[in-house]
Structures are given as structure tokens and as C-alpha cells.
Amino acid sequence: MMQRRVLLVLTMVAVLAxxxxxxxxxxxxxxxxxxxxxxxxxxxAGYMRIHNHSDAQLALLFANSxxxxxxxxxxxxxxxxxxxxxxxxxxxxxxGEAVEFVPGGMHLxxxxxRRELKAGDRVRVELTFSDGTATDVVFxxxxxxxxx
Length: 148
Ligand SMILES: [Cu+2]
Fold this sequence. Notes:
- By secondary structure, the chain is mainly beta.
- It has a single domain (24-142), classed as Sandwich (Immunoglobulin-like), CATH 2.60.40.
- Helices cover 12% and strands 51% of the residues.
- It has one helix at residues 2-19, and strands spanning 27-35, 43-52, 58-64, 68-79, 82-88, 91-93, 98-101, 107-113, 122-129, 134-142.
- Strands 1, 2, 3, 4, 5, 6, 7, 8, 9 and 10 form a 10-stranded mixed sheet that branches.
- The longest helix has 18 residues, at 2-19.
- It binds copper (II) ion.
């Protein structure tokens, strides 16, 4: 009985210590990758999943990278049987939801690579959100045909 009480107290201390370790991360970015492009390509596409763990509506506003002249936020629109890409000025991140950047859908358009990028390389992209935070994310370059 005594031991159980000690264990309970220890558990509570651990939980409180966990809370004290800082605010839970509001935006979590996973499964980042850049699709490898043929040599000389003028643009590459970057993909990821963005989770908004907060209870506020947020938005991704900007992306930039030292490895590219500029980075745009693109959606792919399907008009009848044609596909075209369109730039958007932000990507809404609804509270508690995740947005997928995937081939054929939303993507980061990485324009004007400043160095040759091959599968196995890594690029850093800074993402800026509507709450004023910015986060530096690593995107590994991958061959689209390789299993992931
Ligand atoms: Cu695009």
C-alpha cells in the first residue's frame, strides 16, 4: 500500500516535470523530402506533412532556402484532364489538423537551385508561420522511384 502511494507520487512528479519542460510544440513537420530532378532542372518540388497541434488557426506564409533563388507555395489544379500549378500566398493550417504536401498536390516549388542536388543530399528550408514563428527544416533529396 505504502509502495503504491510512493509510485503514484513519483508518477505525478514526472508528469509535472514534463509540463514544465516548455510549451508543447504547436507545429510539427514530418516526412520532408525533395524530389530529385534531372541535372540542369530549373525547379524542384518539396513535400512534407504539417501538423497544427494548437487550437488556433495558423497558416504557412513563406518558405525560403539558401540553396534556391526563391521558394513558392504551389497547389496543383486539375482542370478536366490538364494539370497546372498555381502559386498561393499562404497555406491554411486548421487547428488539430494536418496538411499534406504530396506529388500531384500541394508542394514547395524550389526555384533556381544554387547547387547541383542529387539523391542523398540535404537542403534546409525555413518555413515562416502566421504566429510569427519560423522553423528551419531539413529536406533530404530522394529519387521519386525509390521506396519510402
Ligand atoms: Cu509547382
